[in-house]
Amino acid sequence: MAKNERTAEEAAAKAARKAEKASKKAGKQVVTAKSLDDNLDEHSPIQRITATLYIPLSPVVNNYPIEGVCAEHFSPLYLQYYPPFDGVVLSYENVRLSENPEEGLREDGPSTVLARSINEYGVEFVWVTADFLVFRPAPNTYLKAEVNLQNESILGLLYLNYFTVSIPKENLPEDWKWDGSQWVDAQGEVVKEAVCKVVDFEPSGEGSISITGTLVGL
């Protein structure tokens, strides 16, 4: 390799290290589009879980127990924050009954299940297992959402056209500017969509959740 070629490569490598160091010093991280896509895939807030619950069964649905469980217990959970799952239930499937939790985890569960009746209670109790799709925006998960609300102190995002994410001003990049009516990025372009990292979330009443995110340090 010629001397001038080595010198050019060394200069380029030195410049790259200098840029990375300056970026980290400013509290930012150089991120490529590919790495953001990887983070969106690897840190998805949507999870599939299998859960077994001990549920009371009303006598009126004894002839149709699975339909009764779905109508009385599972369907009301749609788009509701459910504390045992620490997330919002999006859907469920593969509901099956069992006499103990271990049987419910087997795909070839029992064809006949006996519910338990306790003293004078009018309901029976049975173990029910199902597969749930849950939205669980734990800290450090990534969301790609559209801007739906903004003012000088906050940027509001909408994820899946339903869940709202609040980005406080201090969690926006330093080179973003408020032009009096909307936020613009470092290139002066209006921000319509953004990838954010979840800082935290908490139940906010009526089965919904409040999500706080950041656009710094992605």
Automatic annotation (TrEMBL):
Domain annotation RPA43 OB: ranges: 137-180
CDD domains: RNAP_I_Rpa43_N
Positions of the UniProt region annotated as Disordered: 1-28
Compartments where located: Nucleus, Nucleolus
Entry superkingdom: Eukaryota
An annotated GO cellular component: RNA polymerase I complex
Listed GO biological process terms: transcription elongation by RNA polymerase I; transcription initiation at RNA polymerase I promoter
Record keyword Phosphoprotein present: yes
Protein keywords: DNA-directed RNA polymerase, Nucleus, Phosphoprotein, Transcription
Biased composition (Basic and acidic residues): 1-23
Keyword Nucleus: yes
InterPro entries: RNA_pol_Rpb7-like_N_sf, RNAP_I_Rpa43_N, RPA43_OB, Rpb7-like
Function field: DNA-dependent RNA polymerase which catalyzes the transcription of DNA into RNA using the four ribonucleoside triphosphates as substrates.
Protein family: Belongs to the eukaryotic RPA43 RNA polymerase subunit family.
Name of protein: DNA-directed RNA polymerase subunit
Lineage: Eukaryota, Fungi, Dikarya, Ascomycota, Pezizomycotina
